[in-house]
Amino acid sequence: MIVCAAYLRSFTIDNSNMSVENQDQRMENVISNYLKMETSYALLINGRRGIGKTFFIKDRIIPRVKKTEVFHDASKKYKPIYISLYGLKSMDEVFTLMTIEFMPWLNSKGAKICLSIGKLVTRGLLNINKAGDVDTYLKDLTGTAKHAIDTKDFVIIFDDLDRIAKSLEIGEVVGFINSLVEHENNKILVIADEEQLANEAYLAVREKTIGTGYSVK
To answer: pLDDT at position 26, please?
Structure first.
């Protein structure tokens, strides 16, 4: 079932009678449409553990993302950033993984990260062993917007939201995701088994952050 909450909060499409291939194609279309419109919400891919969500994202969605034109600049193609939250114990660990994934662009000649992720990159770099000249990276964070990396060019995929460690509050993670989509209009895909997240802390922040959800059967 596809829950198209962004278009109409109560609107649903029943795909229970579709073949697996048709369901996969429908999910590709939902994600493609999400990338091609102005948004201020994340898109959730929901399904039980072991159903193959991660494989599908890596095998079919990430290659498609790389071929999709950036919504605000058709001269560019989206850059996918994949982050597994499995077992992460703190937001510092989340920031560290994100920093590692952004590192190729940070290392680009003349590239300077924009303020939308500046703080998380700073914290992430401080947690990475042998990250190189940290002072140089921190200096780069002060770069002008003219030379900044626009995070709207990226599609950030957070997998395994339901598998974070107990020491990491779900509200912290979803709150951070909300800051990216609400204030920066970043494109965020969240992969999870929502049945494992049926608690008050998650439900309290879900509606504000997850605008569209696709449930895989």
So the answer is: 86
